[in-house]
Amino acid sequence: MMSGSENSFAKGVTKVSSPVRDILDRVLEGREISKAEGVVLFRAASQSDKQAIFETADSLKQRVHGDRVTFTVNRNINFTNICYMGCKFCNFAKRSDEDGAEWQSVEQVLQRCHEAWDRGATEVCIQGGLHPKLPGSYYADLCRAIKAELPDMHLHAFSPFEIWYGASKSKKPYREFLEELKDAGLGTMPGTAAEILDTDIRKQLTKDKLSTEKWVEIVRTAHEVGIKTTSTIMYGHIDGPEHWAAHIDLLRSIQKDTGGFTEFVPLSFQHVGTALYMENPDKVRLGPSTDEIDLMHAVARIMLHGFIDNIQVSWTKLGAEHAMAMLSRGANDLGGTLMEESISRSAGADHGQEITAHELVQIVRASGRTPARRSSDYRILEVFDDHDPVRLDPLIDRNGSDPLDFLARFPDQSGKLEAAE
Ligand code: SF4
After folding, report:
1. Quick check: 298 and 54 in contact, CB under 8 A?
2. How far is the CA of 40 from the CAs of 21, 43, 197, 244, in angstroms?
3. Is the CB of residue 82 below 6 angstroms from any atom belonging to ligand 1?
4. Given this model, what pLDDT does residue 409 score?
5. pLDDT by residue (tens digit) across 38-47?
6. What average pLDDT does this structure show over 339-359?
7. Is the pLDDT of residue 7 over 70?
8. First to last CA, the chain
9. Ramachandran region, residue 316 (left: φ > 0; alpha: ψ -120 to 50; beta: rest)
10. Contacts with 28 (C-beta within 8 Å, 6 or more apart), sequence order
């Protein structure tokens, strides 16, 4: 039970508007807020209101996680970028005869998995384009091939769009297709391809090929057969606060039934070179504003409190410095080391392909918090309170850039442990 002083928000924040104050008071009393109240928070305009929302999110995070911030050591593998679905926000897909079209054989994927294992990865995250020649059996075959060589590697793989595609190609119901994948060794699934779970918006983004209803059905079925998933939102294009609150509310309602979401990850829209932006430069935004990014992490923490308690910040979308700032906006997880990343990079993000475990630990320490390495299902594997991870060179050359350059501005915390050694 909290004391009155612990239960107050925004110490020192004055002039908070009544609607925002009422909502935040209810949140801190442990009550769930509605979709409409979520919209009020997303629309917060004054600095006082925003600060109160951020402090409330940070306080909720503190209640659940204390000062611990987690990450996982994983490798991202995009086995192909060949895809004909034509999603308008996508700058990753290529036609098979286009420059830059890529296909990795099973042997090449296995070689990358071994390399990841040797660098301490406990997870490989595998997603690919919907290659027209891919048989439906490919997905389970790939899982079996990896598990045969690396039985302890966690397979976090295949978006709901890929499940829709593989099941259609195999002419199997989602449940049967997912059960086969589970038997083949699939551990968890990325909850990507959610974009915004709103029919009108999806019609413009993806021609509604994977509808909201199908996304929800696949994710619910995955949870029912024992495959947990992450959950995501891609925001800052033709969407707005109503869509964001409805999206988070829908995820919350699924979670109440299935308990199958491990985390929520906000993903900022990257506009560069997308058909969505180029066809409608006057109507499509250039991604979310800094305020919107802050509010997305904070309001997600507030709306999902008690339901999805892991809010992950994507350093590939925001960069290391901005990702660190989100640790005081309600985020408690920095995602994975990734080792190689091509989806955000293709879409114009330029924040590197890997942040090593050693570097992630320095970022968390610089924020004044305690870093910990976790498993894919958020079990704590190692707390870095008195030691550092082994320092490794990045897998892919950075051409002299250093994602931690910004830490020079945090002299009190940066490298604190090393200085003491
Ligand atoms: S988002 Fe995925 S399904 Fe859509 S075009 Fe890009 S790779 Fe294909």
Report:
1. yes
2. 11, 5, 19, 11
3. no
4. 82
5. 999 999 999 9
6. 75
7. no
8. 40
9. alpha
10. 2, 7, 8, 9, 56, 59, 60
- Write phi, then psi, for 312 (nearest 5 degrees): -100, 140
CATH number assigned to the domain with residue range 69-352, chosen from the 4 options 3.40.50.11310, 3.30.420.10, 3.20.20.70, 3.40.50.720? 3.20.20.70
- The band of 3, judged by pLDDT with boundaries at 50, 70 and 90, is very low
Rg of the chain in Å (alpha carbons): 21
pLDDT of residue 2: 40
Distance separating alpha carbons of residues 130 and 214, to the nearest angstrom: 16
Give the H or E element holding residue 19.
Answer: helix 18-28
- Cα–Cα distance for residue pair 361/402, rounded to 1 Å: 15
How much distance in Å is there from the Cα of 34 to the middle of ligand 1? 32
Distance 183 CA to ligand 1 centre (A): 26
Whole-structure pTM value:
0.94
The DSSP letter of residue 124 is E
pLDDT-based confidence at residue 135 (cuts at 50, 70, 90): very high
Q: Is 288 in the pocket of ligand 1 (CB under 6 A)?
A: no
Question: Which pair of tokens denotes residue 228?
Answer: 């947990």
Q: Which atom of ligand 1 is nearest to the CA of 89?
A: 1
Q: Where are the domains of the chain?
A: 18-65, 69-352
Residue 128 Cβ contacting ligand 1 at under 6 Å: no
Minimum CA distance residue for ligand 1 atom 4 = 87
Output the residue whose Cα is nearest ligand 1's atom 3.
85
Calculate mean pLDDT across residues 397-402.
Answer: 84
347 CB near ligand 1 (under 6 Å): no
Measured torsion, CA atoms of residues 107, 113, 118, 123, in degrees rounded to the nearest 10: -170
Instruction: State whether the beta carbon of 130 lies less than 6 angstroms from ligand 1.
Output: yes
CB 77 less than 6 A from any atom of ligand 1: no
Pocket test for ligand 1, best of 85, 164, 207, 345 (most atoms within 8 A of CB): 85
Position 361 scores a pLDDT of 97
Q: Is 192 exposed, middle or buried (0-12, 13-18, 19+ CB in 10 A)?
A: buried
